[in-house]
Every structure is written in C-alpha cells, then in structure tokens.
Design brief:
Distance between the termini: 102 Å
Helix content: 10-25%
Number of strands: 13
Structural class: alpha+beta
Number of domains: 2
Largest sheet: 3 strands, antiparallel
Strand content: 15-25%
Shape: elongated
Order of helices and strands: HEEEEHEEHEEEEEHHEE
Strand order of the largest sheet: 9-10-11
Length: 202
C-alpha cells in the first residue's frame, strides 16, 4: 500500500470561507460579496434588504430614498443601485425622479379614473387650452376643468353646475337635451333624428 505521511496531510488546507458581515436590517451574517454600500455614506447592508427597501419606497411613490441606517440622512442615488435593482424598479424610480422635477402648477393627471396618467402643461405661455387628448388613453378631456370633455357646455357654465349635474350622466343628458336627442325605448341608447319618421327601431 501507499503510506501518506503526517507531513503531506498537514499541507492539505481546509476550505476557505468568504468573509462575512452583519446586515443591520435583517440582522443576519451574509457573505461580503452580497453586500451593498451606498455612495453617500459608509453603512453596509445586504443587497437583498436594500432591494426590498427601495422597491417598497418606489411602490409608495417616494423618489428620495435615504440610507436605512438609523439616524443617517444620506440620500441613496439611483445610479449606485443599478447593479442590484430590476429594470422595472429602476425604470419606475427614474420616472419618479423625472416627475419630481415638474412644477406642481404645471402637473395634473388624466381625469379618467382608469387611466390617471401624469400630464403637464408644457405650452410656452400657459395658453388657455380647453379640449385636450390624453396621450395614454386617447380620450378627450377639458384641460381647464380637468374633467372628461363636456361637449356643448362651456367651462363657465360647467363650473356653475352643481356637483350632481357634473356627473357624466348629467352632462350627457344636458347635451342630449341641447341636441334634441331621444332614447331608444328598448336599449336606452341616445339617437338623433336626421331624416324620416319619428318611429325608432332598435
């Protein structure tokens, strides 16, 4: 047989473990290669905790994200996190940062609840634009009143209407009265007589 001397056996080194650090968020010891240190300060966290923290802040529409260390007021920059964030989170953060640069007076949202896209008045002299189209949902709205387009009713008249009259149904009824439209007795859709008899066939 082959004999292995004690001298040869002692040269075989045990497996080297990577250095670890303590994450002050999850309080777990993590490998140093899974750490994240913001450019703004010297605090060290595990990248998993940082990703969850930033994603949560972004979902809350917070674009200024501070260091997670208690008492630290340093602001974490988007560029320092690009290597650990998903494209979706980093894109949303970039969009929030861009939105924060728009002056509140120039910022408004699409009035349709199922859209609510951020819009802004980018006209040079803040002209009185009335009829506008949302570039996201492509529906018309009144840029002065910040509501769906109230065809046949000027802004002054619309503002004088009491709140229940401003509902979409009331605006439609008002327009129907103005245009002398009638409802089909069967399906209740508004119809307009252009020619022919008064008989409505559904």
């Amino acid at each position: 047989g082959i004999l292995v001397s004690n001298h040869t056996a002692s040269k075989i080194s045990p497996t080297v473990r990577p250095p670890k650090f303590l994450c002050n968020i999850c309080m777990e010891r993590k490998p140093l290669n899974r750490s994240f240190r913001p450019d703004c300060c010297t605090h060290l966290f595990c990248s998993d905790c940082v990703v969850v923290h930033i994603a949560t802040k972004i979902r809350e529409n917070v674009c200024t994200i501070r260091c997670m260390e208690s008492g630290c007021t340093s602001v974490i920059e988007l560029k320092s996190c690009l290597g650990i964030l998903t494209a979706e989170v980093s894109d949303r953060w970039a969009a929030l940062l861009s939105e924060s640069l728009i002056q509140p007076a120039d910022k408004y949202y699409c009035p349709f609840k199922d859209c609510s896209a951020l819009l802004w008045n980018d006209t040079a002299e803040k002209q009185a634009i009335k009829e506008a189209e949302c570039p996201h949902c492509h529906r018309l709205f009144c840029a002065q009143c910040k509501v769906g387009w109230h065809a046949g009713i000027d802004c002054r008249e619309y503002r004088r209407m009491v709140s229940w009259e401003r509902s979409d149904d009331a605006v439609m009824k008002n327009l129907a009265n103005t245009k002398k439209w009638r409802r089909c007795s069967k399906c209740q859709v508004y119809v307009e007589k252009i020619s022919g008899c008064l008989q409505i066939t559904c």
